[in-house]
Amino acid sequence: MLAEASPAKKQRIMGPSHQGNGLGSIQNKENYQKLQIERLQLPIYSARKRLLQEIQKLDTVIVIGETGSGKTTQIPQFLLESGMHRGKTIAITQPRRVAAITVSQRVAEEKKTAVGRLVGYCVRFEDMTSEATKIKYMTDGMLLREAILDPQLKRYSVVILDEAHERTIHTDVLFGVVKDCQKERRKKGIPPLKIIVMSATMDVDHFSRYFNNAPVLYLEGRQFPIQVYYACNPQSDYLFASLVTLFKIHKEAPKGHDILLFLTGQEEIESAVQSIKEISRDKEQEDLTLIVCPLYAALPSQAQLRVFQPTPKGARKVIVSTNIAETSVTIHGIRYVIDCGMVKAKVYNPNSGLDILKVVRVSKAQALQRTGRAGRESPGTCYRLYTESEYESLQTSTVPEILRCNLASVMLQLLALGISDIINFDFMDKPDTESIVSALDQLHLLGAVEKADNIQLTQLGKQMAAFPLDPRMSKTILAAKDYDCLEEVLSVVSLLSVESILVNPARKRAEAMAAQQKFMSSDGDHITLLNIYKSYKGVGGNKQWCQENFINNRNMKTAMDVRKQLREICQRLELPLKSCGQDMTCIRKCMTIGYFMNAAELQATGEFITLSTRKPVSIHPSSALFRCKPAYVIYNELVQTSKCYMRDLCLVDPDWLYAAAPNYFRRKKPANSN
Ligand code: CDP
Ligand code: MG
């Protein structure tokens, strides 16, 4: 069925200043009125009454509605306006920080307030809320952390678990945590916790059953017909195919019809954006009608917001995005979708207990969501860069992250929540016992848990849980207190926690490399990062210095902010904030203590193999050690593309590895090695 045409909705995400005067305030008023009219026209509005009745009557409700129907922005406002929040805060979780930020900005605008007052957001390393905040958008990971400090989630009257179909590991754990919290509150006579589970599409029965047969509310979607085209033959190079398709559309389609291209990850997207710009520049003149915007989770918030700005008249916007644009953000003007059919996902290797980032095929559910983005505002077109029979062979839905990722981090959080019987935890989909045992084994190797009758966190484990980081990274920080180099390790960890601070524009690659050369350390990427940090601090965080040295100023600033927050946690834990001066060895030792499980050894053949699984790996070309042949390294991450690459490397001594975990290496060492 054809849904009614949507109103003209080219809307700025960041509204005009809220304290404007003169012309500004007239515009504000007009904008406000326009937003109120738009609100009334959203599909969710007609379901308002029923939703409120259901949630009044029962404690849990499931809401299903296509992207753009108004779930995320409106439902919290309905609850607030009807007083159902009982003066407390409404939490709305999002799997991605960009969604939490942009949606809270939009809702603040609709409520005519500044972000951080009535409406706010809270994401890792950034809290934009205050005492006055009643509608709080937050990442699922943040709510999970809050539950550690307050298992009854007392400050909330309603928890909305949004984008439930994404089944991120944090959302899955939250399902169990909020369900338990609801039960506890009921038992103790505390006012009930209302739970709303929201999703674009999902296995409704599975969800309803899990939430004690909660009622399901279906919202009428707004979906126009979409013409789907498949590739005639399987494509060996989807990147190339996507560019060909894109320029074909650009040539033929009317201006103002925007294109959304789904690719897999940051580097691929940046390189595609570069190619698109170069191709459109190739003619005599630059094609000013093509505006290209990348979109991925690690992109700085400011750059992400560009995606949402209206396209100027006579131009066409091309958004090159990861699966972030599948359901979690609303982008106007999209008429064409190009789906490469792939997605970057974490894949767990049960032998090593580590995750590898790998490009894999999307599921049918994902392909449908991607296609759907072309028909939100009018009829659209979707080009699938795979054949119809390839589509037919796709998995029906995406396997929940909890069934395919390393569980160490989440186990640490569950233990910190006081849940020690993890095998019997109320998971919607239970990870297999082997994965749970292997995660606990890792935590044990890191010294975070004790295996007595009951599995318990050690003193060290409790401290590790205080950091919003991977347990290995927290362990590195905690090791630093014994080596008197906490200040340095905090700098390194902060720089590793933000997206790359090195800028490498394709057109000035040689110049960039020459400028960055002076920071490069033969000890590896961590010491290189530290060198950059020290020079940056030396010039007082200077923007011009960043430009001259091809360092991303904004990412540096974010890292400084992250550092400040990690330092505060250290102070709270009363860790000695000392500096090691010029001695870089202790920093590398600390990295080894956290990351001994990620070690690789150079072979006589000149290749590296991991010590955990003896799998061949290579040094990533972006590493400071790319042209070196160190005997032993540890790495922070494995990325599988044409080869399996190690990223963020540190040169280590085999004795340090052994000292960090003698039991582990005794077990791992092959019989024939000495
Ligand atoms: O959650 P759901 O996908 O159902 O919809 P929503 O995020 O609440 O969006 C409802 C409508 O609000 C969209 O169709 C957009 O018109 C508007 N919106 C926006 O303009 N900017 C945002 N950041 C979020 C929503
Ligand atoms: Mg939504």
Tags for this model:
alpha/beta; binds magnesium ion; 40% helix; Rossmann fold; Helicase_ATP-bd; disordered N terminus; 674 residues; helicase; 23 strands; six-stranded parallel sheet; single chain; binds cytidine-5'-diphosphate
What does this structure look like?
This protein folds into 4 domains: 15-219, Rossmann fold (3-Layer(aba) Sandwich), CATH 3.40.50; 226-401, Rossmann fold (3-Layer(aba) Sandwich), CATH 3.40.50.300; 406-449; 471-660, no CATH class. It has 25 helices and 23 strands. An 8-stranded mixed β-sheet has the order 4-3-5-2-6-7-1-8, sandwiched between helices. The chain starts with 22 loop residues before the first helix and ends in a 6-residue tail after the last helix. Bound molecules: cytidine-5'-diphosphate and magnesium ion (MG). Magnesium ion binds next to helix 3.
SSE diagram, text form:
Elements: H1 23-41, H2 48-57, E1 60-64, H3 71-81, E2 89-94, H4 97-110, E3 119-123, E4 126-128, E5 135-139, H5 140-149, E6 156-161, H6 169-188, E7 194-199, H7 204-210, E8 216-218, E9 226-230, H8 238-252, E10 258-262, H9 266-281, E11 290-295, H10 301-306, E12 316-321, H11 324-327, E13 334-339, E14 342-349, E15 354-361, H12 364-372, E16 380-384, H13 388-392, H14 408-416, H15 433-445, E17 449-451, E18 455-457, H16 459-465, H17 471-480, H18 486-497, H19 509-516, H20 525-538, H21 543-548, H22 553-572, H23 585-595, E19 599-602, E20 608-610, E21 616-619, E22 632-640, E23 644-651, H24 654-660, H25 662-668
Parallel strand pairs: 1-7, 1-8, 2-5, 2-6, 3-5, 6-7, 9-16, 10-12, 10-13, 11-12, 13-16, 15-22, 21-23
Antiparallel strand pairs: 3-4, 14-15, 17-18, 19-20, 19-22, 20-21, 22-23
This protein binds cytidine-5'-diphosphate (CDP) and magnesium ion (MG).
Cytidine-5'-diphosphate binds next to helix 3 and helix 4.
